[in-house]
Amino acid sequence: MTSTDVSSDSYVSHGADGSISAPTPPTLPSGTSLALLLLGQGTDENSERGVDCPGDLPLASDPDLVARAVAAKATLGSKVFVLGHHYQRDEVIQFADVTGDSFKLARDAAARPDADYIVFCGVHFMAESADILTSAKQQVILPDLAAGCSMADMAKDHQVEDAWDALTDAGIADVTIPVTYMNSSAAIKGFTGEHGGVICTSSNAERALRWAFEQGQKVLFLPDQHLGRNTAVLQLGLSLDDCVVYNPFRPNGGLTVQQLRDAKMILWRGHCSVHGRFTAAQVDAVRERVPGVQVLVHPECTHEVVTKADLAGSTEYIIRTIEAAPAGSAWAIGTELNLVRRLADQHPDKTITFLESTVCYCATMNRIDLPHLVQALESLVAGQVINRITVDDTVAKYARLALDRMLALPEVV
Ligand code: SF4
Among the atoms of ligand 1, which is closest to the Cα of residue 363? Predict the structure, then answer.
């Protein structure tokens, strides 16, 4: 495994176990996309950051926003189905017909063929997945097109094609199976389907990896190195030395041909900018601060944080764990702050603490606010579809193949 792993696409560097060290401001060649989402500073039509939305946005100060959303939704009736990801703001989630993680929401959308319009309160890759899984007559709308995902942005299709060429040159492409996290663009999902791979979620990553190792000898895991490493090492029993990190900003991923041939897990150098902020020191600090606390984190956190925590699992797992916890128990949770706050509100009989010491929202999830939701709904009432998300037919065909392989995996118990 590479011991140090700094590239020009990120403000952080990663140690051999995926831990994050001091910030390193990036230097970008001209013409490349922005390093991170800079809110209100430019757009990038070729990335998950999306583009500016057309039309006039209602003022955030409008006291009638809630009433306007209620009225528009009532007028649309069963023609509209509003999906709300767990990380959405309360002001938005109150209008969701269903809530869930990205894959549950995409399946929920597919189960409502009567709804002409799917308003997806989440981020861009989730709306793409909903478009892939719903019928051609249904239209998927993302209230703010700038609601992208920094992790999904870390794997571009041309970079992944280059990586596959490197694996081909090393003579290992035909024994390598791509396993791609849901948090990826439709193009990367399509690549995965075309090359015999499978999509996974944080709930079924173990099953997806076991399936992949039955099909081939190696896995190319995209785009979240932490979920890939944590699953391979903690659930499949591989060692850290079985993993290498492929850096798309370096020739051959920054790896020698021999390193590629020796590795069982080739981890794409991507991470979640929210979950990547949690540190092992924060786990130690909360244990000192809150007697008897149990630390519960998402597997997008670094290996160091996950191994220090008491429990790790998907968003749905975190919710189930808190629901089942006895009254009086104390928890420090390492995931997005909107969800942690909501869990604390819903379970006043338990002590629920945010693992980070500072505020840690997902900036792109928070792009979806009440003004954008009202604008999307009122536009539909007026017969105008704005901010529609569509996926190219060929990309959708292969992405669907990779998603169907995931659906064929054994059920998560
Ligand atoms: S929480 Fe992380 S993975 Fe999820 S949308 Fe935000 S940046 Fe992407």
Answer: 6
pLDDT at site 11:
29
pTM of the model as a whole: 0.85
Same structural domain, 328 and 370 = no
**Cα torsion at 208, 99, 329, 310 (round to 10°)?**
20
Pocket probe mutation, ligand 1, options 20, 48, 87, 151, max atoms within 8 Å of Cβ: 151
Q: Ligand 1 pocket by C-beta < 6 Å: which residues?
A: 87, 123, 149-151, 183, 272-274, 336, 362, 364-365
Range of the domain at 369: 65-148+365-382
The answer to whether residue 330 is domain-embedded is yes
Task: Look at residue 225 and tell me if it is in a domain.
Answer: yes
Looking at residue 88, the DSSP 8-state letter turns out to be S
Summarize pLDDT for 267-317 with one digit per residue, the tens.
Answer: 999 999 999 999 999 999 999 999 999 999 999 999 999 999 999 999 999
Going by CA atoms, what residue is nearest to atom 5 of ligand 1? 149
CATH code assigned at 78: 3.40.50.10800
Distance of CA 63 to the CA centre of its chain: 33
Q: Are residues 248 and 236 in the same domain?
A: yes
On whether both 306 and 336 belong to a single domain, the answer is: yes
Q: Is residue 337 part of a domain?
A: yes
Q: Name which of 83, 111, 87 is nearest 98 in CA terms.
A: 83
- CA 77 – ligand 1 centroid, Å: 31
Give the span between the Cα atoms of 376 and 386, in whole angstroms.
6
